[in-house]
Amino acid sequence: MSPLPELNKQSPIAVVAAGRLGSSLAIAMTEAGYNVAAVSSRRSDHRDWLNSRIGDAIAVESAQTATNMANIVFITAPDAAIEEICSIIEWRSHQAVIHCAGVLPLSAIDSALGSAAETAGFHPLQTFPSPESSDRLRDVSFATEAEKPELRTWLDTLATDLGGSPFPIVSSQRAAYHASAVMACGLLAGLTGLSAEMWEPLGIERSEALRRLIPLLRATVDALDEKGLPEAITGPFVRGDIKTIMTHLEATTNKSIVTGNAYAALALASLHIAKEQGGLPDSGFERIKSLLSSEK
What we know:
This protein has 2 domains: 13-170, NAD(P)-binding Rossmann-like Domain (Rossmann fold), CATH 3.40.50; 182-294. Helix content is 49%, strand content 12%. The chain has helices at residues 20-31, 44-53, 63-68, 79-88, 149-161, 174-184, 186-197, 206-226, 236-239, 242-255, 257-275, 282-294; strands at 13-16, 36-40, 58-60, 72-75, 96-99, 118-124, 141-146, 165-168. The longest helix is centred in the last third of the chain and has 21 residues, at 206-226.
């Protein structure tokens, strides 16, 4: 393959298929002094918004037009669309093509290799609720992957300049990494939803229960941040309170068999962490483990 041109902050960048992640990334890179030359979006109203927010960058409809203006191209589309978008763009040598998906291997953008472009991955371990979430890129981890050392170094520097910290990943590790991210984010939100629905016998709707649970969630996250594991875990599993666990299993199963199974499976999977606190004797651990296993 042809060598990449020197990569620095002045290297022209394009962000293709800029939704919530792409828009936030483009804004953050511009604010960090990087040369974002073009951003693509199929929505005219979003292009107008991007033009008002991203310095000298030009917001265009065509991914190809944006790509033609850059040496470094970030594809920030949903995972299912990345491979197709990459395959229809006419790449050129000396370009770096970077996908921002957590789970996809680099082979998803292999079509760019046929034009002697280089490929890489750059995934921020964060969720982006809106296109104006650029501030959420600070203090987060970035999974970076690239065959070319100079491209990997550039991505690591970008992560640092955005206020985050990079770490290396290879394609074979991505499924486990992304599953971890979903467990800590999407599934945590879903679990909170199940928790809120447990308030129905009290005559309290889910939205109101959620409002009342939020302080507890915040305190838990604070404890994880300040104390770490296993100290942040509280409740009957660290105490070995079998009677309480039995009442929980009955209550969650009364809600639905699936909810009861979810409670038992989650408790069983994390029981070893609770035991690390030292307050749960081996005998209690085995009794709780047996009880939870019988519920699966």
